[in-house]
RNA sequence: GCCACUGUAGCUCAGCAGGUAGAGCAGCUGAUUCGUAAUCAGCAGGUCGGGGGUUCAAAUCCCUCCAGUGGCUCCA
């Protein structure tokens, strides 16, 4: 999508942009950018100003179009349901939505609403802007508490703001908007969802209607087609077609069961990560899945994580918890003996399976299961080793993604603390009363905390450690020349983190890799090393995961390749079919020779016809289909069909050699 | 957890003005021995997500629980 182009056009003072555009022979603009500000084409500048016309084919124009489409949606809803109370309707990345306080709508009603929108678009109603005082605004929207809120929040007491009207419909809005509803003919309502007002679960539920709008029917149709194709890539669908995993919603809701095919894929990923870890000095360990609750209290997990943990009590009264994270286990190993400064960094890795009680509505396929395996790693460091370690992990991240996914579009985020909500994090507090430099930690609601010395509740949070850690992450990102956005409030409860996000087939963004600096857990567990002066010194922990979770990573992987994996990770690398039962023996030989060469071959010795076998295996997405018959048997060859349905006849040993090098090199595209 | 929608055979789906369940694929049996996306015939397969209610009669209507999906909140 192109951006609005620079344009030397100058709009004259005291006449509308529309007139200036018309004079310059420019048609079809929906807005203008004047001095960097988007404005309506019917606005009138008070002085001559350089402008760029905005067309719907550009990013900016499409946003205007979709914002206007959201208004059109609200208008249609109000005509059909006069009691509805619209809240807000912004454009989104590929469409728009409008949150409306109304009775939930079903599919049929959604179509009715869309029909009404189209009718209103056909009328080509003029969209006009009016400037109103706060008092008039409040009066105009007196029946709509959501708009009242917005007016109160956004308009100064003696101030003015704008409304946009089309026909009978009026909305409180800054604009800009398209000049008339005729621009909004290529629209489609997509789904109905719901949302809490102001994203607060204690506030009322609103109906959120999602839709999209395009400049013309052709691009709308293309979008809808792409969307359908994307839905076919859904990892849940492909996972079933390829028989990678199953869920048993009765016996273990939210827990993935790996079938042989799926486990093969997971093992390949594990092996990849194992060698990468070795190369970068991470030593593999294995830790228990269950711990006594003591450790969770000490680690600080209980304070924040308890509601998400699987907990149980044994007959002897002891309380246990299933691990939601691997860190305490690694801490237990690190703490087994004192460490010298010369031994650091100590870096443990583990494909560690964790269990989190996700609330029912939050689960979904492999992207959000209740059991998942983290390619977890914990580094125990000196202060001076943090930056170089972070940079090394970033290089591991880069290598992983480029090897496995080619060139995916990654987003780096720096997730930092929200200082307005200290109750969400482990923080150092200083006592204001006794002056004691109150040593550290533990969360839970701030008011429950008291000074360990004088029991005063007058505590002041000290963000120094958080700030230090955040600076280190920032510095590492800058030195690696990675562009990122900072997200306040997204930090882990024990420290700030770098996150990598990737989009799934349906455009939803998921966090995969993460690097987290943690000053607190070492304190909570009393971790130290012996420095060059034989004194105890504070250990810094780094939590990191590169895949993030194998499950979520596999979901992205499945959708990225639509199941057509690079051969090295493909569960079925070769599928062998004899032309008829007569050539079973030769087919079996080929199959066994492949197996002897550690190539994953599948051979179906049933009496089905060749055509049928090929048809049936297709959804399993084997990398190569090998057909053998009389010709092949005589010449010791195989007829190889690749994923582009190209056929090649090769000597069996040639085929095996090529295949082995394709697998060993972890080549993404097929070489045969 | 909240709101909405959905739940029929292993899979995809039909049946839903209430009259007691059907197709294709997969499976099994037999025939067929085949050159790159379905050979033919037969057989078998279902507590219609669970429970409760209304009714002479419930897959169909009502209530409730469970699960899945789309969002919200939360998170890898």
Strand ordering within the main sheet:
15-20-21-30-27-26-22-25
The profile of the biggest β sheet is: 8 strands, mixed
* H/I helix tally: 19
Percent in strands? 25-35%
Question: What's the CATH architecture of the largest domain?
Answer: 2-Layer Sandwich
Low-confidence stretches: 443-447
Question: How would you sum up the global shape?
Answer: globular
CATH superfamily of the largest domain: Bira Bifunctional Protein, Domain 2
**CATH class group of the largest domain:** Alpha Beta
Rg over CA atoms, rounded to whole Å, is 31 Å
The whole-number mean of residue pLDDT values reads 89
How many discrete domains?
A: 4
Total strand segments: 35
Report the CATH topology name of the largest domain: BirA Bifunctional Protein, domain 2
| End-to-end Cα distance | 36 Å
- What structural class is derived from the secondary structure elements? alpha+beta
Proportion in helices: 25-40%
Describe the structure.
- This protein has 672 residues and is an alpha+beta fold.
- It has 4 domains: 10-49, no CATH class; 59-232, 2-Layer Sandwich (Threonyl-tRNA Synthetase, Chain A, domain 2); 256-427 and 463-561, BirA Bifunctional Protein, domain 2, CATH 3.30.930; 567-664, 3-Layer(aba) Sandwich (Rossmann fold), CATH 3.40.50.
- Helices cover 32% and strands 27% of the residues.
- It is built from 19 helices and 35 strands.
- Strands 15-20-21-30-27-26-22-25 form an 8-stranded mixed beta sheet. Strands 5, 6, 7, 11 and 12 form a 5-stranded antiparallel beta sheet that branches.
- A hairpin with an 8-residue loop joins strand 13 and strand 14.
- Helix 2 packs across helix 3 and helix 12 (386-405) packs across helix 13.
- The protein is globular, with a radius of gyration of 31 Å.
- The two termini are 36 Å apart.
- It binds one RNA strand of 76 nucleotides through strand 11, strand 12, helix 7, strand 27 and strand 30.
């Amino acid at each position: 999508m192109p951006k609005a182009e620079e344009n030397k056009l100058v709009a004259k003072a005291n006449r509308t942009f529309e007139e200036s555009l018309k004079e310059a022979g420019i048609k079809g603009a929906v807005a203008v950018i004047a001095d960097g500000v988007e404005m309506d084409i019917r606005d009138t500048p008070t002085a001559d100003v350089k402008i760029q016309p905005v067309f719907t084919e550009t990013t900016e124009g499409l946003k205007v179009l979709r914002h206007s489409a959201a208004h059109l949606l609200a208008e249609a809803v109000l005509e059909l349901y006069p009691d509805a109370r619209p809240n807000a309707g912004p454009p989104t990345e590929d469409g728009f939505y409008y949150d409306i306080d109304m009775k939930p709508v079903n599919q049929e009603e959604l179509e009715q609403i869309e029909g009404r929108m189209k009718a209103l678009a056909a009328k080509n109603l003029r969209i006009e802007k009016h400037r109103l005082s706060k008092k008039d605004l409040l009066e105009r929207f007196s029946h709509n508490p959501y708009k009242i809120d917005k007016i109160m929040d956004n308009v100064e007491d003696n101030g003015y703001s704008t409304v946009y009207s089309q026909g009978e419909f009026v909305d409180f809005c800054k604009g800009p908007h398209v000049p008339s509803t005729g621009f909004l003919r290529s629209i489609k309502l997509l789904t109905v969802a719901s949302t809490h007002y102001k994203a607060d679960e204690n506030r009322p539920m609103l109906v959120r209607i999602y839709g999209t709008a395009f400049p013309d029917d052709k691009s709308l149709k293309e979008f809808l087609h792409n969307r359908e194709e994307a839905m076919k890539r859904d990892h849940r669908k492909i996972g079933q077609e390829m028989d990678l995993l199953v869920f048993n919603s009765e016996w273990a809701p939210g827990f993935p069961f790996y079938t042989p095919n799926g486990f093969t894929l997971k093992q390949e990923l594990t092996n990849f990560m194992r060698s990468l870890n070795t190369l970068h000095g991470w030593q593999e360990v294995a830790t228990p899945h269950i711990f006594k609750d003591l450790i969770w209290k000490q680690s600080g997990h209980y304070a924040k994580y308890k509601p998400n943990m699987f907990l149980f009590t044994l007959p002897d009264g002891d309380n246990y918890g299933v691990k939601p994270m691997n860190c305490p286990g690694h801490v237990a190993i690190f703490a087994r003996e004192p460490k010298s400064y010369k031994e650091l960094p100590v870096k443990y890795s583990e494909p560690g399976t964790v269990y989190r009680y996700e609330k029912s509505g939050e689960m979904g396929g492999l992207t959000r299961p209740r059991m998942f395996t983290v390619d977890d790693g914990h580094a125990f460091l000196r202060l001076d080793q943090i930056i170089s370690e972070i940079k090394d992990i970033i290089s591991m991240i880069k290598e992983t993604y480029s090897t496995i996914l080619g060139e995916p579009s990654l987003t780096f985020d720096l997730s930092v603390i929200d200082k307005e909500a200290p109750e969400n994090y482990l923080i150092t507090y200083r006592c204001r009363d006794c002056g004691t430099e109150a040593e550290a930690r533990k969360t839970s609601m701030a008011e429950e905390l008291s000074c360990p010395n004088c029991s005063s509740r007058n505590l002041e949070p000290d963000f120094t450690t958080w700030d230090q850690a955040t600076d280190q992450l920032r510095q590492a990102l800058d030195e690696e020349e990675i562009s990122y956005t900072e997200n306040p409030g997204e930090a882990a409860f024990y420290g700030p983190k770098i996150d990598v996000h990737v989009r799934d087939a349906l455009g939803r963004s998921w966090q995969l890799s993460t690097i987290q600096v943690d000053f607190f857990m070492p304190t909570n567990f009393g971790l130290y090393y012996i420095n060059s002066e034989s004194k105890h010194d504070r250990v810094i922990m780094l939590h990191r995961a590169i895949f993030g979770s194998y499950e979520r990573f596999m979901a992205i992987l499945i959708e990225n390749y639509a199941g057509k994996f690079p051969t090295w990770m493909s569960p079925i690398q070769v599928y062998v079919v004899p032309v008829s039962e007569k050539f079973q023996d030769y087919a079996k030989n080929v199959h066994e020779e492949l197996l002897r060469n550690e190539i994953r071959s599948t051979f179906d010795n049933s009496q089905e016809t060749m055509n049928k076998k090929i048809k049936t295996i297709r959804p399993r997405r084997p990398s190569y289909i090998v057909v053998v018959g009389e010709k092949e048997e005589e010449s010791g060859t195989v007829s190889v069909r690749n994923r582009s349905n190209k056929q090649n006849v090769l000597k069996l040993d040639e085929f095996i050699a090529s295949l082995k090098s394709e697998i060993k090199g972890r080549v993404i595209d097929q070489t045969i």
